[in-house]
Amino acid sequence: MSKPRLAISLSSASYEVGELNAFLEVARAADAAGIDALRIPEHVALGADFEQYLWGNYPYGVEAPWLEPLTLIAAMAAVTERIRFVTGILIAPMRPAVILAKQAATIDLLSGGRLCLGVGTGWQREELGTAGVPFAERGDRLTEMIEACRVLWRDAPASFHGRWTSFDEVWCEPRPAAGSVPVWFAGSLTSRTIRRVVELGEGWLPIMGSGPAVIAEGVGVLHEAYVAAGRDPATLEVTMFAPPVAGDDGQPSLDRTLEGALVLGDAGVTLVSLFPPSFVPGIAETAAWIEVAARRWESL
What we know:
Blueprint: E1 5-9, H1 23-33, E2 37-40, H2 69-78, E3 84-91, H3 97-111, E4 115-120, H4 125-129, H5 138-154, E5 158-161, E6 166-170, E7 183-186, H6 191-200, E8 203-205, H7 212-228, E9 237-241, E10 245-246, E11 252-253, H8 254-266, E12 271-274, H9 283-299
Parallel strand pairs: 1-2, 1-12, 2-3, 3-4, 4-7, 7-8, 8-9, 9-12
Antiparallel strand pairs: 5-6, 10-11
């Protein structure tokens, strides 16, 4: 059995505005408990049309308090020592490439190389429109902006010429701690997603609701693509939520959920994340719950 590492997904939209300062306490607790990573999702400015959401009922209201993930990660990195941070996902096409490259490099350098960028295209037309991104262009923009970020992180001076991003002989310093920032691409494994992961990335975030069989098949495809590209398939990272599993009382059971997470590891998931609101009612209970979850995971 291949046991994945354990992450905690922290969505600020699950809590009241007055609770959000407690996120730093939760980060400290996760760091001390030995949790491998915190996964931070994003929305920027949502419209009221949730019919575009393809994964069941959208779980939040339009007034949910979405903290900007890179700012939140910077704050949490400052009060922790070893835990990694994964954006899951960052709606990357909403940002200019050079700004994302600078923000990511800064956080990565100051945190000692603890940032992973999980990126995707976003699903709501109105949200992307607030940044002037036509919905039909979001995929091509995502690919181009990560290409541009890679060049800015690698070269000094850097030059790049794309449809939306172009620059000649510029320096974007300082660069990331290890010379680059890991990028994990979200989505179903279309040919375009496979190319992104193999040519521009280090990992894959399967779409929500993907079961072990779908993930295992996708990991097999990516491993073959890695080998064909001359890359080591053992370096592929795959991160996925562990869906809550009910206990005999009908309520989400931490123990059964962790057992299900082990199955995801057998499918090729390397980092499995738990969602605290499925188990505890508020942010005040989350730090103590994380300590319990870490101990139980260690014992499996």
